[in-house]
Every structure is written in structure tokens, then in C-alpha cells.
Amino acid sequence: MNKSILKIKQIPIVRSEVFNKLFNAIIFGYFKPGDRLVEAELTKSLGVSRTPIREVLRELERLNLVTSQPYKGAIVNKITIEEAQEICLVRIYLEKLAIKLCIENTNETIISNLKSNLDKYKKALKKNNIKEMLIQDDLFHSIIYKSTKNSTLQNILKNLRARIGQCRLITLPYLPNETLSEHTNIYNAIKKKNLDLAEKEIQEHIKSFYKILEEKL
Question: 5-52 pLDDT, tens per residue?
Fold first, then answer.
């Protein structure tokens, strides 16, 4: 495990940077389910004091990414099939709403950002770079969320994104080509402003996502 990637180079160090480092380290697989997040080790790896580490660990626990255990510290949570089912059910409704608002607000910049994201995913796919595919997969949906211009929906999806990210670690290695195809279909529907088609494509995308979770959990 290369701990140097956790090192924060920004000076002065802000709490949000500590959160982003640890959050991304979990949803992109640097820390695996069952791993212990030891304060002393994180302090050394990130180059920060224990105070922001403790605050961020509490926030990660609120997002259900970790659980604090006596004498063990914070443990990265595992996804259960029951949680995956709940996540996917809620996600279908929220993502359909996000797609609707995205289409209502869509412009050349949004379309260009989605297209650029697909191009980056293709490059990562050709190199079989799972980590980069995970990042671009997450970013594709984040572009749609941001385009809604609905802060309440964005905050709800931000909280859900943490657990979706953990699920994606399980699903993406089995669906790298399918993910590109499904994202392309969603992009084309948004570009055409075809709401019915876009809702259908996002629902099929999430169903494929859940099918793998059902098989692997």
C-alpha cells in the first residue's frame, strides 16, 4: 500500500482536504472493507494533527462508511445485500429526477463535459485502468448531479454517493464495457433531450449495477 498518495501537499491544510483524501481513499478502494483506520497512522500519512482526523472519521461514520469500535478505532464498513438493495431502489428514483433536471438545464458545457468524461473512460478502458475507470464513472454521475442546480437533491446524492462508490468497487471490474455502453446511451438521450429514453437508460444502468451486487455479495 503506497501511503504517499495520502500525503496532503496543500499548505495551510484545511479540514475539507483531509475529508476528501479519506473519502476518496475509501470509495476508490485504497482502503478496503474491514481495514482499520488508525489515527496515529493517518496522522503520519496525511501529515496533519489528530484533531482533523478525528473530526473527519466522525463525518465518515455519519456517512456509514466506517464504524468506530472500542480499542480498534474506525473500521471501513462492508456493504450487505440488504443495503445494496435499499441503495439501488432509492438511487433509481433520485437519478431519474436528476436526469429530468439535467435535461431541463442542459447546455453545450454540460454536453461537452459528459462527452469529455466518456473519452477519458474509453482511454482508461483500453489500458484496463480500473482505478481511473472508477474515477470517471463517479464523475459522469457527478456531472449530471451538478447540472440539476438543485442543492437539496445534490446533498442527498452526495451522501448516497459514498455507499454507491463502495458498491462500484464490486461491480465495475465485472462491467467495464457495459458501463461505457450504458453511459453512452444516457449521454445520447440527454443530448437529444429525450426524457423518456434517458429515464429508461438510467434505470437499466442501475439494474445492471444491482444484478452484479446480488451475485457477488
Answer: 566 655 556 788 899 999 999 999 999 999 999 999 999 988 888 999
Name the pTM for this structure.
0.90
Q: What is d(CA 70, CA 183) in angstroms, rounded to the nearest whole number?
A: 43
Please state, as a whole number, how many other Cβ atoms lie within 10 Å of the Cβ of residue 154. 17
Residue 5 CB neighbour total at 10 angstroms: 11
The single-letter DSSP state of residue 78 is P
CATH assignment of 81-216, among 3.40.50.300, 1.10.645.10, 1.10.3720.10, 1.20.120.530? 1.20.120.530
Give tens-digit pLDDT for 165-210: 999 999 999 999 999 999 999 999 999 999 999 999 999 999 999 9
The C-alpha cell that represents 34 in the structure block: 474491514
